Amino acid sequence: MQNEKLITNAIDAAELSFNDFKSIVINDYRIAVESRQASILGRREVLTGKAKFGIFGDGKEVPQVAMAKAFKNGDWRSGYYRDQTFAFATGISTIKEFFAQLYANPAKGADPFSGGRQMNCHFATQSINEDGSWNDLTQIKNCSSDISPTGGQMARLVGLAYASKLFRENKELDYLKHFSVNGNEVAFGTIGNASTSEGVFFEAINAAGVLQVPMAISIWDDAYGISVPAKYQTTKEDISEVLKGFQRDSENPGYEIYKVKGWDYPALCEVYEKAIKVCRDEHVPVLIHVTELTQPQGHSTSGSHERYKSKERLSWETEHDCILKMRGWMLDSAVATEEEILEIEKEAKLFVRNAQKEAWNEFLDSIRPEQKQVVDLVSDMAKHQPELAKIAATLAATADAQRRDVFAAARKALRLSTRLASAERDALLTWYKKQESLNYDRYNSKLHTDGMESPDMIPVVDAVYDEFSKMIDGREVLNACFNENFARDQRLVAFGEDLGNIGDVNQGFAGLQAKYGELRITDTGIREMTIMGQGIGLALRGLKPIAEIQYLDYLIFALNVLSDDLASLSYRTKGIQKAPVIVRTRGHRLEGIWHSGSPIAMLLSSLRGMHLCVPRNMTQAAGMYNTLFRADEPAVVIECLNGYRLKEKLPVNVGEFTVPLGKAEILEEGTDITVISYGSCLKIVQEAAEELALLGISVEIIDPQTLLPFDNSQVCVSSLAKTNKLLVVDEDVPGGASAYILQKVLEEQKGYFHLDGQPKTLSAKAHRPPFGSDGDYFSKPSVDDVIETIYQMMHDANPNKYPALF
Predict the structure, then answer these.
(1) Among 406, 421, 412, which Cα is nearest to 369's?
(2) Rounded to two decimals, what is the model's pTM?
(3) Which residues are marked as active site?
(4) Which one of 82, 223, 314, 717 is most buried, by most CB atoms within 10 A?
(5) 149: which residues sit within 8 A by CB, 6+ positions away?
């Protein structure tokens, strides 16, 4: 079999002989034809049931080969799920790996991009080793892990390009030799024309223009978004026309904008060479609008494009197919003969078919031993229980058994044999339990990086105070913490709305921009999605970003980026990429419908894969930051908005002490009831506990400190074993974060068995709080609410000792 990697090379007409030129062109044509065959065969594999779904890059082959010529070691891609030809042309993927991903093969090395977790055309390169240490990113062609949400790749693209600017302009980063070579790297982005209607596209285009970063965005324009034509998608039906105002001129920075037909091979090669040189050398964002593309097989395997394209359009697409056009150009230019081209096309079909067969057989071969083992084990059990023979026979007769077929048979056999104790059943059970850990690794592992710089590996250092420790505002504790860490670690950068010049709206960064410079502490526009993307891109390239969102409410504007991209990054790449972004924000006890400040359940449900820190004061927040700055996993830290001017004692080691994540703390010991709360609500609970003590009720107050992870040491259930009563107080909606905490304590920690009464939650009302202090009082938990709820629980348990209040 021929070499699987046919990497394209740049064309330099001034130096190449005709034979060299011919060799490059023929190689490019071979890549394009192989990619087309992969699309055709891939679609067939889905329609015959071997794969679940498929989406392919047919019709975009020639421009992607041209783009690949300008892509160098150290560069980054943040792309569209139709970039398979680019992946083949750069060597990021082989044809066999493409099919292994289509079949969702989780075997080690089969799908090197996602370990069988993502559908086809979702590529990624290995940035980190198994222990979490970094590879030399300057020596490989880098591809950030693809995601499916349309336009979602744009946010991180801004950060990938911005990193090059920092590496070029901040000489303090020169020591990071494995991450950049003088900031010469270009961040390549790709997107379909219809997806340019997404808000994140416009936000990213504007951000990159403001920042002036080496971002090269290619728009594959085939005039449709599934069935919806361009006239419903884009003003003037032409995105580069819409964006003409971004074109730079002699007086104003901006973009260089190029437009080129997607079937014109020589023009594409010329445009990409020129555009990327400008982008790389001058650090100017460029936009390449690739028009007149086709989509021969339609959008995906979910339907046919003949349903919505006219006969005239289909005829035009056949005539303007980029491979057909390149073929004609090769003949007209005498680059190749008809016989040579026919031979290439014949070889390509055979090669792709063989690669597909290899991938499919390797996928089945990884399952067949398990299939045989279960058939044999269940057959042995059938000697004692004959009805099990049918399960073994059915599984044995399944020609292309999937792993789920194997395990469904094993589990059914175990269920049906529960009353039959035998050595044969024990053997199946032993096999099954051993396989459980293997399947966890295949399908559930690496939600977090879990490497040598995991937060769990950071040494715990207690805060130290002496006789000179001052009582200062909480904001000053944070400021001192940030100052110490920025002096310690040159990789730290921070950016957000109002963060730089004024030092954030609550002064946590006051004076630090003047000390460390605008490259490290930076103001941004109002653009939450790309603030998050800026952080993701920088973190992917080895820096330590703090991406600030001014208020917790505004985080909702960026939740798609955090949930779809950052939170799933480690999992969807099976740990080959990481992005240790720290999202800093503030909330709790805000007033008003639009500043209610505590949508915690929303974050808990959508940010698994990140840590969620809810410090009760700024000293605890500083300790968490100190941990996170030394670790390599992403987190959200929610500071208490009403705590910046409250007095706290400044630790002597303000930049060194650490607060471990997942460690709950007992703030006050008690015997009658366990109350769990976090953030600003803790002060309310503590105040209520003082009055309850006067009523003869002893309250044990627990601060989990982080909600993701939650109470790893099971402090909560230990308390519940003592008090037998549980109240959860938070200011999320009913059934929000409080329900999550109940599930953790009662189910996971098995706290249910210690209860002697109904557990209760005290939350905010279902609606958002009205404006003003009265609105806050009547819609969020107050001291009075806490006192009366706890008293009522004690009354329910012992009405004689605690007579009814009302």
Answers:
(1) 406
(2) 0.96
(3) 595
(4) 82
(5) 560, 564
